[in-house]
Amino acid sequence: MSGILKHIYLLRWHCLRFLRRVFHRPVAVPRALIARDQGTPLPFIAGANLPWLSYGNDFGANAWSPGGGMAQLGNNENLRRHLRELKGRGIEVLRWFLFCDGRAGIRFNRGGTPVGVDERLFADIDAALESLAAERMKVIFVLFDFLWFARPAMVNGVQTGGRTRVVTSAHKQQCLRRLVLRPLFERYGRSPEILAWDVINEAEWATRGWGGGIIGPSVAFLKMRRFIRRVARLVHRHTGQMATVGLGNATGLPLVRGCGLDFYQVHWYDRWQSVAPLERPVAELGLDRPLLLGEFPTRNASRSAQAIMELAKNNGYCGALGWSWLARDDFSGMKETNSTIS
């Protein structure tokens, strides 16, 4: 009897899979990213990494900011000032971090299992999209940062990092997809301001054998691929937008090939030049999707930001997003040194 039930279950599973393929909604891919496949000139996307006003606190509430992020009047006015200045410098697309290391936006139970979005998340995203719409700008939302996988720390009542099990545990990951990501995608899946969803920023630094293990527990290569593929499938099922992953550099492409992404994305800094030279034409990589230069330095680099943009354009990238507008690190110089980046 158990064998018959097993065959019935498998038949049902294959039937559901077939129906999903037949009735799956097509993804509306902006022409800027599919033009190369059609043999026409590719419009080049000039953009910037915002990448946050306050790391991990722009969307959702926590003990540090119980009122939330972007929906707060002061934060929203500050955002609008930055967007107007970015627009004035020729920026069309922003890359903006959403959940970061898990410090806000998602509710977890005491065992670390996601149980839903927090009460301020949607209001903050609504406010951000309204501000983007006013400037006719688009955004690539980065769902998770590699610091999501860092060792946990409690700081004044807020946990940062320590969320590796949310990916490696089948139950916790299912709760994340069903109770957090699906409602998110269903609510914003037709928002014209959202260009794409970036599943994990620099996923290699959390993947075993690819740099993972330094910041915290690493995820096995196949498990990371499976997670990326499942989230990309969720994007396609519930939105008309695209899925991507911002890799630390081009050597990480094997991690995401065949995961159902709509375009690939790599980052470049001088320290990666020897293993992933910026001069290498995209055509030599043998990719089946366009390639975006998702981060490049705008300070303390061997080349100027404009030179990097031109090199990326000439070598077949579909766009380039400078790092960064507001992050305070050695490679962020857009706000201080560049009058335009387009």
CATH architectural category: Alpha-Beta Barrel
Shape: globular
Distance between the termini: 67 Å
How many strands?
12
Question: Keyphrases for this structure?
Answer:
single chain; 342 residues; alpha/beta; TIM Barrel; two-stranded antiparallel sheet; 12 strands; globular
Write the layout of secondary structure elements.
Layout: H1 2-23, H2 31-34, E1 45-49, H3 73-88, E2 93-97, E3 106-108, E4 114-117, H4 121-134, E5 138-145, E6 153-155, E7 158-160, H5 165-168, H6 170-188, E8 194-201, H7 221-238, E9 242-247, E10 264-267, E11 291-295, H8 305-314, E12 319-322, H9 334-337
Parallel strand pairs: 1-2, 1-12, 2-5, 5-8, 8-9, 9-10, 10-11
Antiparallel strand pairs: 3-4, 6-7
Summarize the entry for a quick read.
The chain has nine helices and twelve strands.
Task: Report on this structure.
The chain is 32% helix and 17% strand. The chain is an alpha/beta fold and 342 residues long. The chain has one domain (43-337): Glycosidases (TIM Barrel, Alpha-Beta Barrel). The strands form 3 sheets. An 8-stranded parallel beta sheet has the order 11-10-9-8-5-2-1-12. Helix 3 runs parallel beside helix 4 and helix 6 packs parallel to helix 7 (221-238). The longest helix has 22 residues, at 2-23. The chain is globular, with a radius of gyration of 20 Å. The chain starts with a helix and ends in a 5-residue tail after the last helix.
